[in-house]
Amino acid sequence: MSREKVSGRSPDGSAPPYDVVVVGSVNADLVVHVDRRPAPGETVLGSDLAVHPGGKGANQAVAAARLGARVALLGRIGSDANGEFLRRALSGDGVELGHLLETPGPSGVALITVGPDGDNSIIVSPGANGRLSEEDVAGAADLLASARVVSLQLESPAAAVLAAARMAARVVFNLSPPAPVPDELLAMCDPLVVNEHEAEFLLGERGTPERQARALLALGPRSVVVTLGADGAVVAERGSVIAVPSPRVDPVDTTGAGDAFTGALAWRLSKGDDLADAAAFAARVGAASVRRPGAQSSYPRMEEVRAL
Length: 308
Ligand code: ADP
What we know:
Layout: E1 20-23, E2 27-33, E3 50-54, H1 56-66, E4 71-78, H2 81-92, E5 100-103, E6 108-114, E7 120-125, H3 134-139, H4 141-146, E8 149-152, H5 158-167, E9 171-174, H6 183-188, E10 189-195, H7 196-203, H8 209-217, E11 223-227, E12 233-237, E13 240-244, H9 257-270, H10 275-289, H11 302-307
Parallel strand pairs: 1-4, 1-8, 2-6, 4-5, 8-9, 9-10, 10-11
Antiparallel strand pairs: 2-3, 6-7, 11-12, 12-13
Helix pairs in contact: 1-9, 7-8, 9-10
The protein binds adenosine-5'-diphosphate.
Adenosine-5'-diphosphate binds near residues 230, 232, 233, 251 and 254.
């Protein structure tokens, strides 16, 4: 469906119920700190287990909701205790969960070990996320068509992601974790959001952020955002490449910064900001998020972003 044909309004012409619909993953992040990682066949003792709500889809939804956005999440959780925990966390942040579906079996989990230097090693077990289907997306067609922006990532099956993109008025797509995507999906991105590693994955080569952004635009998306950690982001649209700085902060933990950025970006775009303004706002949200540990636990409210 072309963007022109879809207004992002309810059938009766009233304002849409949601600013952003996120289609994506919901994971429990199981975190243990270790002095060193075990070699094959070896056992090491770690810290107490910490369990945090995570998953790229849920993170984006919470980032936007905490800023005041009206957000709905389409995804799948399992029938286990983690599923209940994840549902409660999302609902506590005001994310609309009428389309959070339940699959018998385990929820998605990320098994995270944090080394002495703060380095993460992560295994993701998709669990219920892996069951999100094109049929699930079709069942949420009204929801998807009513939103001004649909925000997508790749921790869910590619077929479901593509189906959701086809129904969206505007697609914000974060190519994370990086994997090959069809040209059709790339062509619908407005913008494609990538960090430098994801950009390199798509392009097959390194380059300055500006060159990367231009080269990515040549692959077909309507617009591109390359995020650059402490250096902010570069925004590319037809005819323009703009550098967007990030506020200087003392980083404590950068986990989930990209998800915070993308959730905030999707929300500002849904409010009519142009891409450079939305990215400048999102950079402030990303910067605020690295000042505290964790992903969702680090995401700011509007007052904090204003004060940065
Ligand atoms: P990802 O988490 O996907 O690797 P980035 O590291 O590029 O993404 O971070 C996303 C955004 O978060 C950046 O564009 C920036 O605005 C903000 N950010 C991340 N790290 C820092 C930092 N050390 N200082 C300030 N802002 C940061």
